[in-house]
Amino acid sequence: MARHTSTWPAGQRRVMAALLVAAALIIAAPSGMAWGVRAHTWINRVAVRTLPEDGPVFLKAHEDWIAYLLVIPDAWRRPSEPFLKMLEDPNHGWFKEQFAFMTEIPRSRYEFVLKLYDEQRRLAAAGDPAAALTNVRWTGTMAYAAVEGYERMLTGMRTYRALRERKEDTRFAELEIAYAMGWTGHYTADGAQPLHDTVHHDGWQGANPRGYTTNPRVHGLFETQFVDLMQLEGGDIQPKVPAARRLADPFTAIVEHLDEAGRHTEQVYRLEKAGALADAANVEARTLVIQQTARGAALLRDLAYTAWLKSGEPPVNDPGGNPIVPAHPRYNPATGSAPAHVAPAPGTAKPASPPAADAARGFRPIAFTDPVIGKNFYLLDAIGRTPAARAVIEQAPALKALRDARVAALAKAATSCGNDTTCIAAAFTWTAADIASAERALVALAAGNGEVRTLIARDLRPSGLLQAYADGDDAALLAGAWRETAAGLNRIIETYAQGKAPRYPKIDAVSYDPASESYRRLLGIMAAVLHEQRDELTTFYAPALAFARRLLDANRRDEAGRFEPMHEGENAAAVRRAASVRWADFPYTAIVVPGAGPDREDVALDPWAKMRLELAVVRYRKGQAPFILVSGGYVHPNQTPFNEALEMKRALVRDFGVPAEAVIIDPHARHTTTNLRNAARLALRYGLPASSPMLITSDAGQSAYISGKEFHDRCLREMGHLPGTLGRRLSAFDQEFTPSVRALHADATDPLDP
Description:
Elements: H1 12-28, H2 37-49, H3 63-68, H4 72-75, H5 82-88, H6 109-125, H7 142-165, H8 171-192, H9 218-229, H10 234-237, H11 250-262, H12 265-273, H13 283-311, H14 371-376, H15 378-384, H16 387-395, H17 397-416, H18 421-428, H19 432-448, H20 450-463, H21 474-496, H22 505-508, H23 517-532, H24 542-554, H25 572-578, E1 591-594, H26 607-621, E2 628-631, H27 644-655, E3 663-666, H28 672-685, E4 694-697, H29 700-707, H30 709-718, E5 724-729, E6 734-739
Parallel strand pairs: 1-2, 1-4, 2-3
Antiparallel strand pairs: 4-6, 5-6
């Protein structure tokens, strides 16, 4: 309805009258404008039931409470409680035609109200009748109600985590969060109902060339009477809810949700005119109800999931400062505050730094100077190939002093330790005091040196390899990267110099007897060679890095660097093909097949792995995905010459006739955890749509294991994160999986597959 001009269409007074009649009916109606009880109930229940395993699963115990809360916000709209009604009524609508004059939706409820007031005064001064409906009641504030509910969940989840950390009772915190979720669910559900997002909410308004009904009861006919008639159930909705996703910006997601629902307005009226809303079996009407209720459930679930993930991270404050302080650059004296800032999405740079590429498509394959070093210690690889930043680090007094001390320790190892491996290892191992000293110096450089800040902005952040620290500022990112680097160097030294057992000693341990005279002598020679090369060890980390690299080489533990750069080698054809794939033609981006290592040294491809391939090929030929992604490294038996992924690719091409360009290999994963993590990484780096699911296909035993709590806990224990979100289980062999950008982070403490 074009009402933002100085004059209305000829029927403007009839429109005004119709709206006022609708208002009277709404006031008189006992339940107001909302999905009926049935739809609201199932939207909230399905949202709870589809929470992923890495989400706030404790809420599943409160499903009944969250479902009970579904209609409570409507009870706040009775005329008998006028203060509450004035506050709550606008929260149930989003009549976007009424504020089309706004080129951008303010990120502040108060700024939105003031913009409406300014427009109302302008229209009133011009004598435009539209002024009567240009107010908060007849535009709605549903987007703000939903995002405020999201933030209530977020703050409650922070409290919950703090209580759990202190081993205190979390029951009341759980009820607080469940209350916020149930309340918020009312608005995500209302927003999914098309007639909550339009001036045509209770009968068609204004010009009506198609003769749609003007009866205000159309609203209840669609959302209550037809929903009850078709006997909507959770089983109708849940299969249509996609896998959980972290929302980059909840407010934007909410506004897009409301806009999308509003686009179905005329469809509702067309269905009513055709009599479809009186026919429980009408396919189009049923499909629309199920589609929109599923979207309402999905948004509520995603808001809760996003709040949970963010509650486990340090809060991100507005970079402009306190929003209620007048010195804030976006402070509005009319509201006494600045509008909410846009928090950086995972994987993007902070506002103070040059922006990184879009997380969905911005991560690209990386070529390292030395793949073994680059993948294990990307921070050091990046410094080494950035002369300006390297020079600053070499000359920083505290770091230069550390370098000199390390070289002095190297001299002692070469001249005094003999073949005492404990003595030699001590010369290269980082002490807690030295790690802290280096961290302080690096943090100072991150804060005050342009070359180091440029290194962070142009190289470290966009790489994705330091994703665990991406939400922090430059100093926090550099400090975290250094601490993990030092721990990784120490891990290599204690495993391959001192013989300490790694997490998986059968496949990752030192290749020789570390107590043997020959190996002890080898380490003595290694220290002597490095001492001779001491003048080339110009950075504070160079001695330890050089020693660690030689230890890996001596033990034939260069697995991390084999096949790199894959995007120019084994995966080159697939990467080229990915750029031209019509992704909309496929339900999944790739079929992920985890490898299985044979126990016999003379077997190249385990029979289990080949049977997994048979399953994958059937799905590939049915058009489930354009790629098969096979994952597995040089694992079983220890030091095997056969690579699981490479052998699976050969079998796919040779035995099953799959084109080589349709196969992506991950030749590095050593466990089921990293099968999924590495698959997620390749999807993100090779341009597969980041928000679309992959399909994990394996034998029933491994597939069930991937779905279970043991695997979930193992991922958190060994990697510190979940590589993505598990979605629907399609069969005993198949489960959906959506990659997480967190999977890009390189784990410096796992040197054979970081």
